[in-house]
Design goal:
single chain; alpha+beta; Ribosomal Protein S8, Chain: A, domain 1; 3-stranded antiparallel sheet; globular
């Protein structure tokens, strides 16, 4: 794991857990990861998440979600803005992912939001990741 981009590491851990058909995973916790997990739960991409403290380490436990056939609900999870190349968009330029079937998670001045909420509130920000 690289210490330079904890969000990319977080997304990779979710992808890897899905590929290995794990039911849940634990990742080192941070506020931004908690906010991303909250949006993924609200939008129906993960079953649940919870904050736990274990041996003085703060962890985020994520329960993954699979469809009836046992396939991961998250088909694609990709980092957009990277430490070497930040990607910002205004409220009117936020991309629509898969004609609204997908989701873009954005870090705004009002917190971490889904693309729909950011458009509703009229705020832009840094595009963190795309999910579908």
């Amino acid at each position: 794991m690289s210490q330079t981009d904890p969000i990319a590491d977080f997304l990779t851990m979710i992808r890897n857990a899905h590929m290995a058909s794990h039911g849940e995973l634990s990742v080192p916790s941070s506020n931004i990861k908690m906010n991303i997990a909250k949006i993924l739960k609200e939008e129906g991409y993960i079953r649940n998440y919870k904050f736990v403290e274990q041996d003085k380490r703060q962890l985020l436990n994520i329960t993954l979600k699979y469809d009836e056939e046992g396939k991961p609900v998250i088909r694609h999870l990709q980092r957009v803005s990277k430490p070497g190349r930040r990607v910002y968009r205004g409220a009117n330029d936020i991309p629509v992912i898969l004609n609204g079937m997908g989701l873009c998670i954005i870090s705004t001045s009002r917190g971490v939001l889904s693309d729909r909420k950011a458009r509703e509130m009229g705020v832009g920000g840094e595009l963190l990741c795309e999910v579908w």
